[in-house]
User: Fold this.
Amino acid sequence: MTQVAGLAAAVLLLATSAIAQQADQPPLTGEKAFGDWKNDHPGVWRLIKPGDLQKPYVTASASNSPGLGDRPEGAKPKLPPGFSAELIASGIDNPRVVRVAPNGDIFVADSGTDQIRVYRLTEGNARPAEEAIFAKGLDRPYGIAFYPPGDKPQWVYVANSDSVVRFAYRDGDMQASGEPQILIDKIPGGGHWTRDIAFSLDGKTLYLSVGSDSNVAEDMSTAPKGGIEDWAKSRPLGAAWGSEEGRADVLAFDPDGNNRRIVATGLRNCAGMAVQPATGAPWCVVNERDDLGDDIPFEYATAVKNGAFYGWPWYYIGSNEDPRHKDARPDLAGKVTVPDVLLQAHSAPLNIAFYEGGNFPAEYKGDAFVALHGSWNRGVRTGYKVVRLQFKDGKPTGEYEDFATGFVISDDAVWGRPVGVAVAKDGALILTEDGNGTVWRITYGG
Assistant:
């Protein structure tokens, strides 16, 4: 890992000189909302609309992967006034999704080592009283869910890259007591491998996200057997074929893994899911396609509507045709569902959590936090932060706020890449990042 701790002073200088938006200032809109990491700061609000889309290839497609540096001494996520971050753990190989058990234990998918880790914190702080490996020998585990929903789950579900398994669970278990039971197999592996899962509020439906195999279905220029018209008649709206068949979808199952059905199609990579407590709707955060330019197309967070088609690979953000599939599916024009909240292009959202805790100020309740991992496909990097999506009466306003920043060291290096967000039993926000393999506890007040 590149040594960049000497740049810590530059980070602190930049952070001190940044000025947060005042609460009564309007959100940044249009091109002003695009920005880059130097403009990110807790309290900055953005509102991006479909009409803000640029045309493809206005800028060249960048290849700008970040160098990963050691976390500068004392560096923490930069947060709004009144909030603080404490380190729970560090040196984890590849911490990704984090979920909190009803008893308060913190489960972390360590995807790179094929393990699920669990942490039990000392009451009132981030110091682990106990930690253990709950399960190992998995296959790039990512999504985690407890079943049935409620105070006394009996199972821990884990989404591998090619299957969903479950472990018998009793309240407080820190190690699985038995072997995993395979519930769902024959999930396409490879490509976008992050499989997330979530249960409906009533526990009757298990949602599973399956990302695409490729950037923009390059091998689908050949029509399916029988032709596109016949394919479209017998498949859900916007269903893909070839190596992409059964991918770029959100699926649903009964809790036992049976009764497979497609909820929605055309979501290139729904890397994170959560069910909104206020409405019961499943939500996705989606990594959109690359190679069209710095600010196109927008990433997004959206409630996943049954039977909806979100555009990939032929269209994006409504009926905007991808030039690489020009005139391929005119039958789908006008049938693309526009997502609810648009996020800056190439931010790479990976996880979402709705806040219903009691620790943060009242105005946070019902809002959602999204972890932006950052992407290689932008000339000046963006993402590498956690943002807060604003909701009013259970509906998204489209505005979002920088909440946790400070993970970028310079134009060439970052120390943190946010991945997982979850709300702890005490109302703290738990955050994972896989740049330096750390887990954080974020709280408000003394």
Summary: The two ends are 35 Å apart (CA to CA). Residues 1-22 have pLDDT under 50 and may be disordered. Residues 5-444 form a domain with the Neuraminidase fold (CATH 2.120.10.30). The first helix runs from residue 8 to 17.
